[in-house]
Design goal:
Structural class: mainly alpha
Order of helices and strands: HHHHHHHHEEH
Radius of gyration: 18 Å
Shape: globular
CATH architecture: Up-down Bundle
Helix content: over 70%
Distance between the termini: 25 Å
CATH superfamily: CDP-alcohol phosphotransferase transmembrane (TM) domain
Largest sheet: 2 strands, antiparallel
Number of domains: 1
CATH class: Mainly Alpha
Number of strands: 2
Length: 200
């Protein structure tokens, strides 16, 4: 999974993190929520090239956690804030395609549901496991995680930019990608539910 490459990305972000040693991680979390909002606006107004630039800004979402861990500023509220804003970011990144007229709501709505369900399943499972005294079991299982989902979403936009008139079974290229993403996300949600069933 792309999430496994996170240490590599963090290595390149280390110089930037060093300049933010005195920054409040929660403020960085709030700043990191700006690129998804810009992505939404640019897609809705069909400024796709700028939307891709905004997507790259999602890398900033990693900075807050790196600063918090490296400079011993990790707090429970910080984790809560980061997770909450991630859900808001997911909403903007996914629904941009529907509001922008690229992908029909019939595909966007289930993807949004599965995206939230995947996160909810992990969070609730870990909370219940912790309540039972199990602090070792990890519930971030499944075929795709948030990182993969976001990159595939971005791929849908890139393909739509390259092949705007392509159509198959009355679906444009972005919608075909969304169909695949809905299936992968639904399967991942099911994997987490079944994993929780066997470990709680």
């Amino acid at each position: 999974m792309l999430s496994d490459k996170k240490p590599v990305v963090e290595k390149y972000l280390t110089p930037l993190v060093a300049t933010l040693a005195k920054a409040n991680p929660n403020v960085l979390t709030l700043v990191g929520s700006i690129p998804p909002l810009l992505f939404f606006v640019f897609v809705v107004y069909h400024q796709y090239a700028w939307a891709l630039v905004a997507f790259v800004g999602n890398l900033f979402d990693m900075i807050d956690g790196m600063v918090a861990r490296k400079y011993h500023k990790v707090t429970a509220f910080g984790g809560f804030l980061d997770s909450t804003l991630d859900r808001i970011s997911d909403f903007f990144m996914i629904t941009a395609f529907a509001f922008g007229g690229i992908v029909r709501w019939e595909l966007v709505a289930p993807l949004l549901l599965f995206s939230f369900l995947i996160s909810y399943a992990r969070g609730t499972s870990e909370k219940l496991a912790y309540a039972k005294g199990d602090t070792k079991t990890k519930f971030n299982v499944g075929l795709i995680e948030r990182t993969e989902r976001l990159f595939i979403t971005c791929l849908a936009l890139i393909l739509f930019m390259l092949f705007p008139t392509f159509s198959f079974a009355e679906l444009n290229v972005a919608e075909i990608v969304f169909v695949i993403l809905v299936l992968l996300s639904g399967y991942t949600a099911l994997q987490r539910i079944m994993y929780a069933k066997s470990h709680l």
